[in-house]
Amino acid sequence: MRAAAHLLGLLTPLSAALGLYLGGWWMAMTIFLLLGLYPIMEFIFGESGPVEPNTEGFAFDVIIHLHAFAVPLNIGYLLYLISEFGFSNLMWLGVISVGFSSATSGIVTAHELGHRRPKSFSWWLARLDLLCVNYLHFTVEHNYTHHKHWARENDPTSSELGRGLYVHLINTIPRQINGAYRTKPKEIIFGFVLQFALLIGLFWISKYVFAAFVIQAAFAIFLLEFTNYLQHHGLSRGLDERAEAKHAWESRNRWSRWTLMELPLHPAHHLKASLPYQKLATYDDAPQLKYGYYTLFWFSLFPPLWHRVMAAEIARNSQLISA
After folding, report:
1. Average pLDDT value for residue range 7-26
2. Which residues contact 121 (CB under 8 A, 6 or more apart)?
């Protein structure tokens, strides 16, 4: 049953593909789902109780690999349609929908598969998904910097209380690239050369193909960095302080868990990064978010509202955070 619930996450890439196929206003289908319907579904399905690790793995593994394959397929279909039939005004809806799908299927998947055995098929598939959004440095930065320094001041992806999302974006992206370069300079240089060559090739095909690829990647990156922004916001630990569950936000919202491959069970991921998503568990000593990720995304777009919401979350969890 738990694996079946995670099939709901495939609605995102399927809706993007179906919208492109039907054309017209149907191309807004994924935008409507993620920004309109999914926040409502979060309230309808509410929170689960404690979640135990699942020992069965095959079905979950199939689901996450379907997500991974959907990313290049959707992007390829989008670029094919533009190269063959031109760029209509409504095609912008298709570009944004594919960008949303690239984030929720691609980068979430790359985050998971990037922790698999290096050079394995799954690891390479994660790299392909990251190439599809021009963010190849992510695995290096995430695995070697974020997982070492999460919730510390020197972690470029963690955000202090009171910092707005847009300020965080300007701050975090160059710091992440710099950190990844200092960790593995040859790999990062090669990645940038490969990404630049891809962009040149797409521009040679068509400036509209190039623009569509860059814009969908930008939307995917924006959603990724929103997730990074959220997951440790306002939580901090000292340079010599041991990492604990209280240093990452946990959300037990069913809809977010089911459609984002247990991404909201973030403390469990940090405490043992090698665990596949179906084996993540809840921690009662982790600070709990009242809302799911789709609802919190809307709050983050309006910094004054976000600050009020997160200040209330900090106050509600103060005993856990200060313990």
Report:
1. 97
2. none
